[in-house]
Description:
Largest sheet: 5 strands, parallel
CATH architecture: 3-Layer(aba) Sandwich
Radius of gyration: 15 Å
Helix content: 40-55%
Strand content: 15-25%
CATH topology: Rossmann fold
Bound molecules: adenosine-5'-triphosphate, magnesium ion
CATH superfamily: P-loop containing nucleotide triphosphate hydrolases
Structural class: alpha/beta
Order of helices and strands: EHEHHEHEHHHE
Shape: globular
Distance between the termini: 36 Å
Mean pLDDT: 94
Strand order of the largest sheet: 2-3-1-4-5
Number of strands: 5
Amino acid sequence: MTRLILLCGLPGSGKTTMAKRLAAEIPAVRLCPDEWLAGLGVDLFDEQFRDKLERQFRTLAQDLLRLGQNVVLEFGFWSRAERDQMRDIGRALGAHVELHYLAAPFDELVRRLEKRNSEGAVPVTRELLIEYAKVFEAPDQDELDLFDVTASADRPQWS
Length: 159
Ligand SMILES: Nc1ncnc2c1ncn2[C@@H]1O[C@H](COP(=O)(O)OP(=O)(O)OP(=O)(O)O)[C@@H](O)[C@H]1O
Ligand SMILES: [Mg+2]
């Protein structure tokens, strides 16, 4: 069964780390908006461009699934609507759709991001993370049950 894996979580939750591991292990094609934006010389905070890129990736993901390739999408999937849409798209193509929800306590996210910022990544500050956390819609158990496979980090999302 072809696998479509959605990696959901805030910055610092470990999506890219997990995606690289899964892409090598499964194997699967990994589509990472941040890397493509950086490679194209586009500002990572250009939301309009990011939306367009993600739309292109959704189309590409469908082509890959039709060809029998497994796909890992590390969009973050902050909204329930986005996750619902992608699950429908995958299912329509007969894929197994998996949601991997990466949660970590807020202070742990900040700690990881501060370390990453110091290594030269585009900085995500504590203040920005607070704003992101306000709009992030964490999946609940009812939603997780809608997927073929789910995986979550051990530690619960802060409330
Ligand atoms: N499970 C983990 N435990 C501890 N540190 C981790 C874990 N997963 C990732 N990290 C570290 O945390 C930092 C952020 O991880 P990563 O870049 O994978 O997150 P991300 O979700 O892709 O973030 P972004 O949304 O900003 O791209 C990295 O320095 C990574 O090495
Ligand atoms: Mg990442």
